[in-house]
Automatic annotation (TrEMBL):
<dbReference type="InterPro" id="IPR036388">
    <property type="entry name" value="WH-like_DNA-bd_sf"/>
</dbReference>
<dbReference type="InterPro" id="IPR000847">
    <property type="entry name" value="LysR_HTH_N"/>
</dbReference>
<keyword id="KW-0238">DNA-binding</keyword>
<dbReference type="Pfam" id="PF00126">
    <property type="entry name" value="HTH_1"/>
</dbReference>
<dbReference type="InterPro" id="IPR036390">
    <property type="entry name" value="WH_DNA-bd_sf"/>
</dbReference>
<dbReference type="InterPro" id="IPR005119">
    <property type="entry name" value="LysR_subst-bd"/>
</dbReference>
<dbReference type="Pfam" id="PF03466">
    <property type="entry name" value="LysR_substrate"/>
</dbReference>
<protein>
    <submittedName>
        <fullName>LysR family transcriptional regulator</fullName>
    </submittedName>
</protein>
<keyword id="KW-0805">Transcription regulation</keyword>
<comment type="similarity">
    <text>Belongs to the LysR transcriptional regulatory family.</text>
</comment>
<feature type="domain" description="HTH lysR-type">
    <location>
        <begin position="1"/>
        <end position="58"/>
    </location>
</feature>
<keyword id="KW-0804">Transcription</keyword>
Amino acid sequence: MELRQLRYFVTVAEELHFGKAALRLHMTQPPLSQTIQALEEELGAALFERNRRGVTLSPAGTALLPEARRLLAHAQELPQLVQRAAGGEVGRLTLAFVSSADYSVLPPFLRAYRAAYPQVQITLQEATSDLQLDDLLHNRIDAGLLIPPLPDKAKEQLDYLPVLNEPLVLALPAGLPALKKKGKLTLSALPPLPLIIFPRAISPALHDAILSVFRDAGITPQIGQEAIQMQTIVSLVSAGIGMALVPQSVSNLMRTGVEYRALADATPLVETGLAWRRDNASPVLHGFLDLLRNELRKSALC
């Protein structure tokens, strides 16, 4: 069955006259009648009842008419759909993110992207940097907001865009005497609380950056707990299990029993960036990248 046959059928059904339908279709009546007859033979039922008084739809034709109109309408929409897909305006984007990004860059970027590409379906999944890298290398996600660096083997297949640099801040159990002093704190002014930290295998750069702050202050911390998610780390601080050094954006995670303070000690900047497969030609992904770069340029100008 061809769309041309359906279009001829709908025209005859609307005119209920083969001659008028042929004029409307800019053709002669014989080939129109032959096309309708071929369609009836293909479907195995008469679509029209023909008699001396004229032409009427048969029960089969009456059933076919709304479906034929629907199919023709969808066919007319296909070029626009294809053009939108080629321009990254429709489709699916699978984006992974580290938990700290949920309190910093992720929400504003998603709002901007939703506004620009409302018909793209976004699948979000929280994952640590090591899992994101594995998912990217095995083509299970389109992009990932993670903490670098990328392993050498990953650099051969992935591209990377820095998105955010931020200092580390203290997350402390509320009620500590040292918190009575306003402003920045030094590690030496704090009691020897156990340190709650990411496992190094999960995020080597963040783990090493945190320990370097203690090392530069001449302090060897006692590792009390290791936790994978920022929410868990903050919850453990809230429970009085220990203290933590977290990226500054995590201070947006308000939790009873936790107080965040800036450090007077020098702290390295923790970077968050977006990684994606270099060979991923998805228009949806590249639309996301273009918007992200534009948002980063605008924020740099502010």
